[in-house]
Each structure stands twice: as structure tokens, then as C-alpha cells.
Amino acid sequence: MQVHAAADGGLARVRLPGGRLPVPALAVLRAAAADLGDPALELTSRGNVQIRGLRPDASPELAARLTAAGLLPSDTHERVRNIIASPLSGRDGLGELDVRPVVAAFDAGLCADPALAALPGRFLVTIDDGRGDVSPLGGDVGLHGDRLLLAGLPTAGRGGDNPAELLLRASRAFLDERAAQGGTAWRLAELTDGPARVAARLGFAPGTDVDQFVGSPGPAVGRAPQVGGLVALTVVVPLGLLTPEQSAALVAAAPGEIIVTPWRTVVVPDVPVEEAGRLESLLTTAGLGTDPATPWAGVTACAGRPGCAKALADVRADARAAVLSGLDHALPVHWVGCERRCGAPKGRHVEMLATADGYRVLS
């Protein structure tokens, strides 16, 4: 497991393809964070989880625990398993197809192909069931329904009976074009005429800028009806930091799994209607936002001080103070500690940028 050095200790990122996290694995993550580092779990803008503040000797123990929980299926491909999918696909009756099997098949095929271990760590795959929630998030390769996207642009490619194989072919074509252009690009869009050239390698016509999808910002906070008479509960995790109390509440509340989204929310699916009120109360008591009117919705922040040596402020503390004092915002608000702007959401938002002289407000 690759652990990165941060100002507050080691940082480990745990990839969750499609954001899916079984309750037993969440319990393992919760215990590992408490035993080996900072007990709060950090949600990322790619629907993954990070553990911060790891001790220098913690990496082998953490890797062993995560491997036993099924969270590290590949020693060689872990850093390239960056897969975002429509969180409610196959559950709420919307979308063109259930993408959960596509995510599983692509992840398995990715880990089985030694060549794909060479993908850059920033390479992102988006698998959208056609509702338009994750297609706008800037994937390198992706599906919108069964239509192939390259750098967010639709092509003439169709997934047909094996959409996962089309994504694998597109990922290999990216590597081939990347090698032809010098082998240094992190993202498909960084290649010269990247979408067109990768599409040509696959035998498809490229898309154009006017074909870009404008979709929804993920599941709305609160209850969503599922097929079969169940409901899904979407809750806001304030500033993307899942405290031990909150993770314990999710372990107690979720019937089988949770889904971590790219919007710093968590979905608890498959909840019986008669249990929904009790579980909402449990999650609210733990400090999670269950009401669509929660002031935490759309407020995010980078790590800031003390976790990041480049940060000029403790942006999470400042963001928390602003929310608690009645921050009013029509657009998402993202607080950042330096010009790198880590974790910024896609689309229009207000940016609170820390400087040596205080915050600069940008929109």
C-alpha cells in the first residue's frame, strides 16, 4: 500500500470502485483509523476514503487489515482503481441500465491486465447510468448509458453487451497514445488532440465540445424511493470528515453497505420504509446532515492546516465557524488553503481562498 507523507503523518487513500463499501469493511476502516492514525475518515472528491495521521510503522498493518477486508484486491493496480459510478444506479429505477455489474467487471478486468498498472494515478473512469450525475465530473474514459466518453466528450462508441470491455479497450488506447506522445501526460485531456486520437485508435468518430453532458449534482440529501418499496438515505458528511461517532452510526444503520459519493455525501441504500425514521434520527444525532435544508450541503474544504504544510490557514475550522454562524450560500462553497485548490468541486462554486492577508472570495 502506498502511503504519502503529509504534514500530519502518513496518508493512505483507499479506493472504492463505484463508492461501494460493505458495512464489515467500513467497520475495519473505522478500527484501523482509530488504532493507527487520525480516527476520522476523510472522504474525497472521487468517492474514496483517506486515513490521515498514520504512524511511520503503520503501513504494513494497515495493508494487512484492508486486504483481509477485501479492500486491496491488487498489489500492483491499487492506485489506478479510480472508478466513479452513479450512486443509486439499479436501485431507484432511473437511468438506462444498472451499472453495478459494469463497475465490478471493469475493476476485475483492470486488475487482471498487467499493462493497465501503468495508468497514471490521476486517471479517472466514470460510469454513468444515463442520468447525468457522474459524466460531468471529468473522467478520462467513461460511459454515459452505453455510450463511450473520452475526456468527458461522447463518441460514436457503444458498449453493447460488454461495456466493461469497451472501457478496458479505451484505457489501453489511452496508454498507447500516451506512449506515442512521450509518456508523461497524467490525463487524457492533456494529450494533443487526445479525445480524437484515442477515438481513432478505437475506430470511433470523436465527440465535440458541444456534446458535453450537463447533469445533476448527485443524489439529493434525504430519502429517495427505491424499487421494491425500500428507500435510500443520502446524508451530508460535514466537510467530508467522518468522525468515529458518525462511522459507528453508519455501521449500525446500514443494512448491508454504504455508498461514498464524489459530493462528500454518503448513501445508505436498501432501508425498509418503516425503519427510515429511526435510522435518520440515529444519523442526525451523530452529526450527519439528513435534512435537505442542512447548512452543510455544498460546503467543502481541502485538508488545510495542520494536515497540509502548504496551507495558509486551518480552513476546516474556519469553514465550520462560518457554517455555524449562519453562512448563506446559493452556490457550493469550497474553502482552500493555497493556490493548488485541492478537492475543488466541478461546476460553478464560490471559492474561499486563504492568503497571507485573510480569505479572498472568488466565484
TrEMBL record:
Keyword field contains Cell division: no
Domain Nitrite/Sulfite reductase ferredoxin-like: 11-68, 226-283
Encoding gene, per UniProt annotation: cobG
Annotated keywords: 4Fe-4S, Heme, Iron, Iron-sulfur, Metal-binding, Oxidoreductase
Keyword Oxidoreductase: yes
Protein name (record): Precorrin-3B synthase
Pfam short name (any one): NIR_SIR_ferr
